[in-house]
């Protein structure tokens, strides 16, 4: 029934490759099927002005898409002179999601920027970015501890994200582009390893959706994130 | 327990005043306690280029905040030269929410722009804007039918929105600013009169939240929207 | 003869309502007939860099128009990414006019920003803004004295403004939009309570105008401002 | 008494040199003492979209200042990414002033752009620009008639402009920078050859000014413009 | 003597991998040692307005660098709101270089955009981009011929580029970052397969350079490009 | 053969007039035939943030073109809100060229900005700008020494620039616009008085060019610059 012949609760093949950038303190190339996002974690020993002197650090994210990451070429945001509303919405979500599992005081007065650049898009770029960003961030924090910069681990939990949707009236896990573009409803769940909810975004696209549908989406997301948490631990060797 | 002495499931006093702008085809000044949003619905007989000739219309929204709508003066977005990510995120949500209850083909090749300007903010401006925007839109569509421009009513349902959150570990309805700024979790629900879900946004602010908390937030929102639907019908005299 | 049946020297009904914003140090909703401008006076205890350490304060103004303040919807300046030349010209005029009646040394090293937002426009928005801004500013300065922040009153005089024009070859006071859009000449006078001139702007729109016409416009403005000064004093209870 | 030893009603040496640009349809290098403005009149056979098909033409102006036109280097507006409020205010004034003496229907469906670039500034750049722009425009229109593009002369009158101000309590004509920066009041008058008023802008800088002072400024401006009209006629050989 | 222990006339390991993007008509991941640039060739069946109806096509390029492509994180150009002068200079060079080997009439009324995104930078990104862009372009044109869109091959020649510089007073081929940042002179040569020169850019960085040094740089570039031409032919299977 | 009847190695008449701006520390109006560029050198006793406290100064350049410097009016960059890629490329070249002959440590912690504004363009504006900028800079540095601000001369050499091209298959010196717009190849050489090369930019416009052609262009440039060096020395009275 699904264009990819997956069962409703089946993820696409997911890979999380670390050490893909020679300069970044942490990095991860995350693939969910044909969706590929390159995440780098950059540590800088200074903070934005509004955070200085408060005895804590900051984690923030930026998101971008290469112009030909998609079926038809999109306009380069650097050329059009501004980031779209969609881009800003996504990077705000990524930043919030990662901060939910970091003890900013333990991080100290430094900033980690998670650059999430979509090399190729086939649905689910924001959830892939969050899932990969945790790996890049964990790698960077491991590096800082190895270097003796950090004494303790500021990471308090794992965080991963997955999209679900109602496609041809059936709730399914991990929408690809073909499903996403004709789904009746679309949702993104950001969950922690310890089982709490960081963020839920659910939108009726073609029609409103029911409470029963929502509950099923939630259950699918819960199962999908369990798999992602295992892959994340494996990627960073824990 | 709540700073306003409200019970957990109690809305602030809500008013929806129509006819507040002499030029707009529809308008509504919506108040949720001290939060006041002026919404105008402007009908234009032309469409953005990408929608022309498709036999349908469009409903879109813009959102703004007067500089001193808040405790301390914020920078005027027109002066800073761009709309913030928050502004864009909110106006995209308002547009999506209203389009969910409009038959765009029945609207014909015209556009309705819902301008939501926050005169005073005390929490919940986006949900107040959606709730008031439905009233302004319904008024404008009534006007178009009275003028004979529209033969049928493109409105397919009511839509309203409300925020809920976990404040001091208790789920509560309709957060004011004081609650919002220290809530553990924050959510916005956009629901239709016929009971389906248009959009859910739920975010853990200070900590992740549990499934049980989420279910309670959902129940509060459901109850709150029932009250809002009745007030909307009353405001437009149906 | 005038579309509104007013006599040539007759103002529209003018109201100046104070205390209309719960956060601002001073505020005024000013109406000249159907023209409505919301003015807030915001006091901030810091100055722009070029003024710091000079032992004086600053008064500045910003002006904006809600998109549907006018007959047809105008583009939102925050969305178009810049303020128009007209907007900048008006806000510079408002700032200059108010500074003319403030002793900036007596104000101390703080800044008052007068935000003038046009809720509905029917001609004369800039002169209404100036007239209302004086009331908002006076309220804010009264508040600062009550709070003990200021020992003396930095206000040295009243200031008010009114438009006049040549409409169908007759000089008339306080143009509404219908008159303004077909007037042969258009002028704005900013005068002080003690009788001196702060600013005159007079423009031939359809034709040049004569010295005799100008003198008559001046006399009308003088009379109109006398009424406005009385209303201002009444509004702030002096 | 004046820093330049001029009498109160004495202009600086004024020159109007035509034919200073080999490409422009008309051009004029205007000097008022050390103030030097290069004006070019460019004729284009197309109109801005909002004017097309209305059977008339348009005259518009742009104004700029070379970065080192002033005592200390100013920031290049092209580098800062926007034109200042002052620049926009001035170019709007120049455009309005020239349109006041052009029959736009007789001009036909074409646009004349008057570029006024300040090579060196010593006060009075906007009035010098208007005075020189008339010469450049007249030259361009003469050229169009010689070429047979225009059958009749769209110019209906002369227009010139001059600044006056109250300097050390004395009304004086044609302020230079030293006077301008310490004047109590400052004004610009735009007058036509036939004696009517196109625009008056008068501002109290250090204090308000009186009606008697204003009348004296007006008289000075009237005399100064008479001289400018004669120089303009001489410059274009009429 | 070289930090990388290469001989003066030795290239870094160069790879040209095609088919790296599933959507683009042509693509190439080019590596010069640690410098990695992803190039996609996007074919669009419309032209910029100024080229329409002239019976020819267009080839253009855009260039970008991921924020952490470099040792320290650079600011994202989409976030800063404009492309730097350096970026614009490079993308203009890439476009010119590729157009030099395309018969634009044979291309027909379509545009090919070459997006060159630097994944990792270690010197020589612009020359790597040109070299890889030729491969991506050739692949896209091959694809258009296979699809029957093009009857003839618009490619008239190969083009490749390489940097050379004077490092510690010795002319060397293919500078890496460490050499580039301390070189006395730096140059880029763009040459065609048939031996003609498309572009030379040579700059004295720490000192001017002599004619003899320039001649040696030229000879090195000539040799390096011979190798690149062979690798290009191999990459596209010719 | 050349449109201007010049021999292949003949410069246009070149003039370098100093002292053309009453405020700038140094200035030069440079003409190459009908190409006219006004250069001012502005000395400021502060540096950009990234250069402070390093015990050295900075020399930078900005470039602009008046809208009607060209055959048809170009858009004003200040109005379009950004500098074109061409403008940025040129001003970066001018800055690099002049820094090549300045001892930045001897300059001390101050900045010289060379504003190069094209009054009229007929080909070769960037090379005229460099040639004139050296004169303006030398004048400013002479002034600083006369004032006692500088003890030694930071100028280490002369620098001049000239364009050459292949026009109708013949290498020629100093292209005017008519030649430039149809040349097969175009190049700019920036050379020092002592015979070293600062910058070479050579581009095939209609076709690639050969090594023999390049060598001839180089020889022409060498001869042309000798003349320019003599004119520069004469202009500053050395």
From TrEMBL, chains A, B, C, D, E, F:
Residues given in the record as phosphate binding sites: 86, 124-126
Ranges of residues in domain Exoribonuclease phosphorolytic: 10-140, 157-223
Coiled-coil parts of chain: none
Gene3D superfamilies per UniProt: GHMP Kinase, N-terminal domain
InterPro entries per the UniProt record, alphabetical: ExoRNase_PH_dom1, ExoRNase_PH_dom2, ExoRNase_PH_dom2_sf, PNPase/RNase_PH_dom_sf, Ribosomal_Su5_D2-typ_SF, RNase_PH, RNase_PH_bac-type, RNase_PH_CS
Top EC category: transferase
GO molecular function, one term: 3'-5'-RNA exonuclease activity
One of the GO BP terms on file: rRNA catabolic process
Superkingdom to which the source organism belongs: Bacteria
Protein family per UniProt: Belongs to the RNase PH family.
Quaternary organization: Homohexameric ring arranged as a trimer of dimers.
Functional description taken from the UniProt entry: Phosphorolytic 3'-5' exoribonuclease that plays an important role in tRNA 3'-end maturation. Removes nucleotide residues following the 3'-CCA terminus of tRNAs; can also add nucleotides to the ends of RNA molecules by using nucleoside diphosphates as substrates, but this may not be physiologically important. Probably plays a role in initiation of 16S rRNA degradation (leading to ribosome degradation) during starvation.
Xref: HAMAP family: RNase_PH
Record's protein name: Ribonuclease PH
Source organism of this protein record: Brevundimonas halotolerans
